[in-house]
Amino acid sequence: MAAPTADEKYELITRRLQEVLGGESIKAILAEGRSPKAYWGTAPTGRPHIGYFVPLTKIADFLRAGVEVKVLLADVHAFLDNLKAPLELVAHRTKYYQYVLHAVFTSLGIPTSKLHFIEGSSYQLTKEYNLDNYKLCATVSEHDAKKAGAEVVKQVESPLLSGLLYPGLQALDEEYLGVDFQFGGVDQRKIFTFAELYLPRLGYRKRAHLMNAMVPGLAGGKMSSSDPNSKIDFLDSPEAVRKKIKLAFCEEGNAEENGVLSFVEAVLIPISELRLSRLAGDPVLEAGTGDQKPFVGEGAPVGTVFTVERDEKFGGSLHYSSFKEMKQDFEEKKLHPKDLKNSVAAAINNLLEPIRKAFEENEEWKKVEALAYPDPNAKPEKKKKKEKVYHPPPPGKGKNVTPTADPGVVPPEAQGAPELGQAAVELAEQQPNLSVEGSA
């Protein structure tokens, strides 16, 4: 298989995207025979879920086109995001994200020689970066900062100042990571245009921006780490996956806000095509881990990219060569939600199996997971009571010891009893060698 041309690389880099800003600059780099540099960032807050397959599948295209990709684990951004986690916890979550993301790329057979993980705090706390941040603060209006972060920074009744800093920091990342383009969801478009406007005002060049479409969550709407019903975790059990898919919103004939159908388009079909390319001898792809069979059933015609398994009594399996065909069948109610869900659940479990296995075989990853996401229902360990060690008192001391009376001295309680007083006098007369203090 011949090496891809500059045009073929550009097609690979930009396919399936919703929008590209500044694509000409990427074409120019490819025409010069250079490898573009890109960055995709994620703030390590909640547990990463299978929605991450959407950008990671696209990043696979970048790597196949020879792009050098930097994955920014934005720990400082995570801390600034409404204080969702203290810095100590963010540090553990950053390590957890790195384990998960690396396991995903390895499982897909994506070459990682040009993939670099970078922690934001490794350069965002430097003098130079902070001086540039102050320059932005002296240039950017409150209105522009608030507008840029409107789709990304959580809007609350009493917003924190950190929300205004967020867009500027993300813009500066492009310069300090030394990239040619930034990649993200279309929800970040306002931050991207903010960067295009303000980086040149600091004397830095404008970068290109590539945007994925947003994929709905399982319950409809945005897939969120904070909503357990809208997402599937990378380490969810096969039973949990099937249960969540069964409960997912997938109304018959309704393709809008349909997370199950959208996941097929954004993840399952691209991965199936990637596996078909490997079978065809793509020299860039590696072996991958787990079952690398495309999501294509037995006896499927050539060109099929996804098969919906179905019992013969219901007409047999449905084979699709494009998502457009599948969507049309779904809208015309030729494809039933139950059959779609069963095939999607099986495909997701196929993707997650090698990631679960990697987790189970990695003790360090398990320790990091426990520290990053401690069980909120775990009861705190009770402090052990300090065992009391008994130390006997010296002879003649202690509360239960009867005090010894001095010879010749009548105790107060005996002063009113003449017979006791007389006994004391007689005792003293019998010991003439002892003084009143009892010393020799």
From TrEMBL:
GO cellular component: a single term: cytoplasm
Catalyzed reaction equations: tRNA(Tyr) + L-tyrosine + ATP = L-tyrosyl-tRNA(Tyr) + AMP + diphosphate + H(+)
One GO BP: tyrosyl-tRNA aminoacylation
Cell compartments where the protein resides: Cytoplasm; Nucleus
InterPro entries registered for this protein in UniProt: aa-tRNA-synth_Ic, Rossmann-like_a/b/a_fold, Tyr-tRNA-ligase, Tyr-tRNA-ligase_arc/euk-type, Tyr-tRNA_synthase
Keyword Chloroplast tagged: no
Pfam families with a match to the protein in the record: tRNA-synt_1b (PF00579)
Annotated stretches, region: Disordered: 374-421
Key words of the record: Aminoacyl-tRNA synthetase, ATP-binding, Cytoplasm, Ligase, Nucleotide-binding, Nucleus, Protein biosynthesis
Gene3D superfamilies: HUPs, Tyrosyl-Transfer RNA Synthetase
GO molecular function: ATP binding; tyrosine-tRNA ligase activity
E.C. numbers: 6.1.1.1
Protein family: Belongs to the class-I aminoacyl-tRNA synthetase family.
Protein's name according to its UniProt entry: Tyrosine--tRNA ligase
Organism: Lyophyllum shimeji (Hon-shimeji)
